[in-house]
Design goal:
The protein has about 400 residues and is of the alpha/beta class. It has two domains: about 200 residues, ATPase, nucleotide binding domain (Nucleotidyltransferase, domain 5); about 180 residues, 2-Layer Sandwich (Nucleotidyltransferase, domain 5). The protein is built from 16 helices and 13 strands. The longest helix has 26 residues. The chain is globular, with a radius of gyration of 21 Å. The two termini are about 25 Å apart.
Length: about 400
């Protein structure tokens, strides 16, 4: 393998300066979350940075993971994939990301040469920010390969600087929630339900100095794992299975005793807390005790809804009526989960983020386009009150691909 001869952050610095000088930039935000369903690519036109930032979604594309790739990522996440195979998976996933961006651009009528930068979250395979010696967070998917394939600027590794500064490295989306969903007159909560669920509390006139945001616990993760275990399916489409089952209150009460739910923010969760192994054990135990498979799925769905609502009530810090809970992520499509959440929050409107100009499936990808823009413009984008970091930091590492030679077409 040929080694790089120089620091990629210093390669072609003029290109970064050119980006900063542009009044408008087109950035591809790429998100693949803990649900392991696939890759979201949002093409976002951005102007400015920080409080002056403006955005417009130019296109969105979803690429599902193949069954083999998803199984490899599961093995990497649960620690059963040999180290050399994890390194190879990093490169393979980088090529998959590059292809997803290329195909998304074609589908959205965007020329590759128009893409000024890519915000590449990568796939989290390990997240342990509370490790005593030094926190660790690992996202794979080679940014260098994406930068070279697309010949553009790529920002990745968004979480490590915050962890190095003593933070959880998550959630990072609250920076965008504040910019895009804050209100001067209403108390709101921004909720994303991916594999893990996370909230940003947005009291009226919220500011970054006092923002509260954190992972509430499982989103779709435990439901999906139990569906694989009990039904051989990757998810509960539309919440149909949960709707056909009856919540077992004794099991629900037991699950709500998980120590994560009692922790005060800042906190972040991952597969280490609510992953495949725990979910399989719960499903097997419940069915072995005589519960129907449908009851297990209904109970895990209620667990997600109730743990979110309890977290909002206990830890959001919002006083007074919460006007709306603005929901994004794959959980929006689980009608039973949305109904259960609305039942848990009867005084608030539980509504998709689409009604606020942020398509629910694209929101996190949009946010990583924004975070890439901030990294290139040297604007700190972590919020210490959210992550627990000791200071603000630039979120992301920058890779710069080789410019296309004159006459090269995209």
């Amino acid at each position: 393998m040929q080694k790089e001869q120089h620091d990629p952050n210093q390669h072609d610095p003029n290109r970064i300066e050119e980006y900063r000088k542009r009044p408008s930039r087109l950035v591809a935000g790429v998100m693949s979350g803990t649900s392991l369903d696939g890759i979201d690519v949002a093409f976002v036109r951005l102007e400015g940075t920080g409080g002056s930032l403006q955005f417009q979604l130019a296109g969105f594309h979803f690429t599902p993971y193949s069954t083999d790739l998803r199984l490899q990522l599961l093995r990497a996440s649960d620690g059963t994939l040999p180290l050399h195979e994890a390194f190879e998976l990093d490169a393979d996933l980088g090529m998959v990301y590059a292809s997803a961006i290329q195909q998304g651009a074609i589908q959205c009528g965007i020329k590759l040469a128009e893409i000024d930068a890519v915000g590449l979250h990568g796939q989290t395979i390990y997240h342990n920010p509370r490790r005593p010696a030094a926190g660790v967070t690992v996202q794979i998917g080679s940014a260098s390969l994406v930068a070279e394939q697309l010949r553009t600027i790529v920002v990745n590794d968004f979480r490590t600087n915050d962890v190095a500064a003593g933070g959880e490295g998550a959630p990072l989306v609250p920076y965008c929630d504040l910019l895009l969903l804050g209100s001067p007159t209403q108390n709101r909560v921004a909720l994303n339900i991916g594999g893990i669920a996370n909230i940003t509390a947005l009291p009226r006139k919220a500011s970054s100095a006092t923002l509260v945001a954190f992972d509430t616990g499982p989103g779709n993760m435990m439901i999906d794992a139990a569906m694989r275990q009990l039904f051989g399916r990757d998810h509960d489409a539309g919440g149909a299975v949960a709707d056909s089952g009856t919540v077992n209150q004794a099991l629900l009460k037991l699950l709500l005793r998980h120590p994560y739910f009692q922790m005060s923010p800042p906190k972040s969760a991952g597969r280490e807390d609510f992953g495949e192994e725990l979910s399989r054990e719960i499903a097997q135990m419940a069915v072995g005790a005589g519960f129907s498979p449908e009851a297990v799925i209904a109970t895990l769905t209620q667990l997600t809804a109730q743990s979110i609502a309890q977290a909002i009530r206990r830890f959001s810090g919002i006083r007074g009526k919460i006007t709306s809970v603005i929901v994004s992520g794959g959980g929006v499509h689980n009608r039973t989960l949305m109904r259960m959440l609305a039942e848990q929050m009867p005084k608030s409107a539980v509504i998709p983020s689409d009604q606020f100009g942020l398509p629910s499936d694209a929101k996190e990808a949009i946010c990583f386009a924004v975070l890439a823009n901030e990294a290139i413009c040297q604007t700190p984008a972590n919020i210490p009150s959210v992550t627990g970091a000791t200071r603000q930091v630039i979120c992301g590492a920058i890779r710069v691909g080789t410019r296309a030679s004159s006459g090269t077409s995209n």
